[in-house]
Amino acid sequence: MRFHALACDYDGTIAVDGRVDDGTVEALDRLARSGRRLVLVTGRHLDDLLDVFPRLDLFDRVVAENGALLYRPEERERVLLADPPPAEFVERLRERGVEPLHVGAGVVATWQPHESTVLDVIRDLGLELQIVFNKGAVMVLPPGVNKASGLGVALAELGLSAHSVVGVGDAENDHAFLAACECAVAVGGAIPALKESCDLVVDDVTELVRLIVDEDLAHVPLDRHDILLGDDVHVRAHGERILIAGPSHSGKSTVAAALVERIHEAGYQICLIDPEGDYAEGLGDAVVLGDPRRAPTHDEVLQIVGDASRSVVVNLLGVPIDDRPGYFEELVMRVGAVWGRVGRPHWLVIDEAHHLLPDGFDPQSTATLGAMLAITVHPDSLSAPVLGEFTAVIAVGAEPGGVLDAFSQAERPDVPGELDTGELLLWRPGDDPVQVTLTPSQHERRRHIRKYAAGTLGDDSSFRFRGPDDRLDLKADNLNLFLRLGEGVDEDTWQFHRRQGDYSRWMAECVKDEELSAAVAEVERSDDGVEAGRARIRELVEERYTAPE
Asked: Which pTM value belongs to this model?
C-alpha cells in the first residue's frame, strides 16, 4: 500500500453548499475501513464545522481555520497552532465597516471586496500578517500558517509522512497543502489553476476513494517524484528494487551515494544498513547509530524509524561479521512491520549486500518493505529468490555483461564490454539496457574526505604497521594517523610494507581511492629512499585530503 492517508478539503470538495451527502460519508467510511487514515483540512471555523457536519468522528485529525487550529475528534481536544488575532486589528476592521467579520482562534475572515481595507489596516498597524483567498473568502493569518503547516502537525501526530498521503481540494488556499502531498488531486469543480497543478482530476471524492481503495492509485503517473540517475534517466521513487553491482573500485559506491543523496533530499525516509562504516559521517541530517565499539540495538533503530522526519544509518562495525546476517534479518522483519502500518521507511539501502542477503536468506523478510537499493561486488552470491525481487540492475565496471548475467537468467541483448569511469548500465528485464552518464553526488567527496582523513575506520579497514616478523602492531584507523605513524616507524618497517605494496593496496581497498592508490604505487616502485618516499606519500595524501593537524 503506497497511500496510507487522505487529506481533504471541506467546502467544495466533500461538501456542497456546506453539506456532505450520504454517498460521500459512505465513501469516507469505506476508506477508513481499508486501514487508511483521514485528515480534514479546512478554512472553516471549528464550531461552524461541528454545527453543519456531525461526522467528524470519521477523521483522525481536523485541521481548521486554514491551519491555525488542530482538532482531535476522538478526544475532542483543540490545539491552537497560531497566535490569536490581535484585538486591535479586529477592532479596527469593525470600525472600518468590514462585514461580515468572523474571528476564530487564530484566523480572521471576511469576504471580497474587503481585502483592500484589510490590507490597509495591516499596513497602518505595522502587523506581520498574510492574506489568503478562498473563492471569494478573505482570510488573515500569521505568516507561515496555512493548510500545509497544519497538515504537517497532524501527520506528525499520526506518525505519517506526506509521501504517503493523497490530498484533494478545490480552491486557492488548497495549493500549499496539495503540493505537500505525494499525490495532489482536484475535484471537478475546482478552480482551473488548481486543476492544472494537480496529478489527477476526479469528478468527486467518491470516485477518488474508489481509486484509492481498489487500485491504490497505481495507474496515476507520479513521475514528478522520480529520482535522477543521469542523462535525464530516472528511477521511480516508489516500488523500485535496484541492485548496484560491479567489481571492486568500479564506482558502485559513487552511484549509490548519488542516488541515496537525492532520495534523502527529496524527503523520503531512508534506513541505510552500513556494514563498513562508509556513512559514519552521516547522511545529511540522518541519525547514525552504532560505531566500531558498540552495535546499535533494534529498538534504537525502530525509535528513529518511528519519526517520519528522520532517516537512520545503521553502522554494523560493532556487530561481529558472522552475526551480521542474523542481526539484519531480525531488524528487517521489525522494520517491515512498521512499513506495513505507515509505509515507512520509504527506502531500505543495503551496502555490502552479499554479506547480508546470502544464499538461503528468506525473501519473506524483505517482501513487506517498499523501495530497496542493494550494493554488492558479488551479485552471484545473493539469495536467488531475493535476486528475483529486483526490478532493475545498475552495472558498473569492466564486465557489465557478467553483472547482468548474474542478476537474471533471462536472455539479454549485447552490452558494452567495459564502462568508463562515471558510466553505468541500467537494465530492466524485458527492456533494452540504457547506458547512462551518472550525475554525481554533490556531497560524496566531502563526506569521503572527512571519513578517511580523520574518521574512525573499523579494525578490518585500518592499516597496521607490523614490520618484518610482526615485531610491531601499530594501527592507523584514518589517513592522518597513518601519516603520523609512518613518520615514526623504523626504516625496516617502512621498507617492508613498501616492497609488498601494502600502502597502495590499503588506499585502494580500504580508503577506496583508486587515484591515490595508483600514485602511491609509483612511489613504492621507485624507492628513492625512505625519507623521500615518506615525504612524497605525505604530499600525495595532503593534496587530496585535509592535512593532519
From this structure: 0.79
